[in-house]
Amino acid sequence: MQLIKIVYITIFLCLISCKNASESINIHTENVTSIDDKLVLKKKLVLNSNEGKWYYNEQPFSGYAVSYHPNNALEEKVGYYKGKKQGITQKWFPDGTLHKQCFYKSNRLDGVVQIWWSNGSLASKSNYLDGEKHGIQQKWYPTGQLSKRTHLNHGKEEGMQKAWLENGKIYVNYEAKNGRIFGLRRSNLCYELEKEVVQYQ
After folding, report:
1. What is the pTM of this model?
2. Domain extent listing, the chain
3. What pLDDT, on a 0 to 100 scale, did the predictor assign at position 185?
C-alpha cells in the first residue's frame, strides 16, 4: 500500500512539472516575433525616414529582404516586421563564407553581433542591449589572436579595458570607473591617472 502511494505521488509531481515547463515554453514563444517567409529584393524596399520604416508596394514590409553578389551568391538577408528590422540579419562573402550576423528588435541591435574575416576566423563579437553596446566587446586579428577586450555599460566604458599587439603583447590595460581611468592606455602599468576623463566615441 505504501508503495502504491509513493507511485501516485511521483506521477502527480511529474504532471505538475510538465505543466509548469509547458507554461514556460508558451510564455517564451509569445515574446518571439514571427517573420513571414516572403523574400523580396532589398533594392525594392523604400525607407520612410520620418517613420523609420521600410515599405514594399506602399505597405510596411514584413518578411526578408535579400541582395546578391555579382556572381549571384547571396550577399545579405535582413528580417523585417511591420516595416522595421526584426530578428536575424546575415551577410556573406562572395564565396559563401558568413561575414556578419546580428539581431534586431524594432530597428535596434539587440543581442550578439558577430563579424568574421574572409578566412572564416572570428573578427569581432559585440553585445548589444536595446541599440547600445552593453557588456563584453571583443576583437581578433585574422590569425585568431585576441586584439581587444573591453567592457561597456550602456555604451560607456566601465571596468577593465585591454588591447594586445598581434604578437600577443599587451599594450592597453586600464580600468574605467565613473568616467575615470585607472591605469595607462598604452602600458601594462596600473596606477590612477589624475584628472583623466574617459573619451567615448
Report:
1. 0.74
2. 33-109, 119-201
3. 67
